[in-house]
Amino acid sequence: MEVIDKDLMSIQEVRTLIKKAKEAQAKLASMTQAQIDSIVKAMADAAYENREKLAKMAHEDTGFGRWQDKIVKNEFASKHVFEAIKDLKTVGILNEDQEKKIMEIGVPVGVVAGLIPSTNPTSTVIYKAIISLKAGNSIVFSPHPNALRCILETVKIISEAAKKAGCPDGAIACMTVPTIQGTDQLMKHKDTAMILATGGTAMVKAAYSSGTPAIGVGPGNGPAFIERSASIPLAVKRILDSKTFDNGTICASEQSVVVERDNKAAIVEEFKKQGAYFLSKEESQKLGKFIMRANGTMNPQIVGKSVQHIAKLADLQVPESTRVLIAEETEVGSKVPYSREKLAPILAFYTEDNWRTALDRCVEILNNEGAGHTMMVHTNNEAIVREFALKQPVSRILVNTPGTLGGIGASTALFPALTLGCGAVGGSSTSDNVGPLNLLNIRRVGYGVKELEDLVDKKATEVKEPTIETTDKEQLISLIVQRILAEM
Prior knowledge:
By secondary structure, the protein is of the alpha/beta class. It has helices spanning 6-28, 33-49, 51-62, 67-85, 121-134, 148-164, 180-188, 201-208, 232-244, 264-273, 281-291, 307-313, 355-368, 382-391, 403-407, 452-455, 458-461, 473-487, and strands at 92-97, 102-108, 111-115, 138-142, 172-174, 192-197, 214-216, 223-226, 256-260, 276-278, 324-328, 346-352, 372-378, 394-399, 440-446. The chain has two domains: 6-10 and 17-217, Aldehyde Dehydrogenase, Chain A, domain 1 (3-Layer(aba) Sandwich); 222-411, Aldehyde Dehydrogenase, Chain A, domain 2 (3-Layer(aba) Sandwich). The chain has a seven-stranded parallel sheet, sandwiched between helices. It has a five-stranded parallel sheet with strand order 5-4-3-6-7, sandwiched between helices.
């Protein structure tokens, strides 16, 4: 019986897909803006029409989150992203300044490698394909093995729609035999121009270590500060809306709540009123053992799971109506599970003396994990917003809005995106909500507006005549002789 090497199959498949993608991208690069826009619209429409089907498939494949919320994600990745970029110029001359005599031209990067996580599989495929094609690039996906079926179906739907609109074959492709070796080949292949990496820390590090330009995102671990001027019922509502959305699988979701001591009681009461359950010290210790694995990584058993599932896992008895589990915490650290990222309906709860110590606590949480990503501030005091904006090590501060929806640009005016850059502090190459312009090179044309003579400081090079303001007799005679000779 012939033994088939899965790793070699995966590597060969990647090489074939990249070859076709490169050929397809050359054709995309010669298309007009109208042709590109027509293709992107067809992709967005097809994804939107199949949003429910794909959401259910994603939930069936992974067991993460709620399929009802995944419909919203798919709608956001298709309709909302398309609406934001439909009028964006990405082909040919993008800008021209007649006064400064500068011209900017959009140049596609080429073949994009799209790494897809299991937490948001279908929506991430839709989003990455749309922004890549809008910039004139082709894209080859590396799917998470646990979400292979729904990812392949998503690629099939949008690629067929794109081809009907004139997109060259091979411009949108996906590995069908996902292996670490195949993904490594995809990232390191000489014809891969850019990597869009969304996934775990190890995957993102591998992308940045590949030698290929990459845009990756680090972990989110955003704290939410409720300042004393905030509307407590509204702040609590927004936090719970965010943390329960798709069972907390979006990395911009809140991971901890920080409050001031003098309004703690009112905030705790409001959380309980709206369905949160505060764990006792004993319960907190029991659940804490399930949040992180021995190697310090998040336990996949809790990711995207409901409160009821998590409570059963940890042998906890909580009311059936519980929406979120909350543990009071006083420490921050790599071995303090509640202070870490928890892609599940679990929150840490910190109490501080005032807004200044709360600010410091938020910085401590973020520097421990999640630096460069996102944090939330609930306040009606603009001065507080500015203080946090100036000092928090994040790329986006969200004010009076749910973290999940605000970070991706659904409830804010930030650019709608499912890849949220964390900047240099978070080990990322950008702090943007990533869009088509991040997948373009800008070729600049500059006309000469000055000559060499215009660049010379005439006063600095001007030879000054010697003065005769001196009391040294020999020097004075020398200066007089020089002046006489110069006038002859």
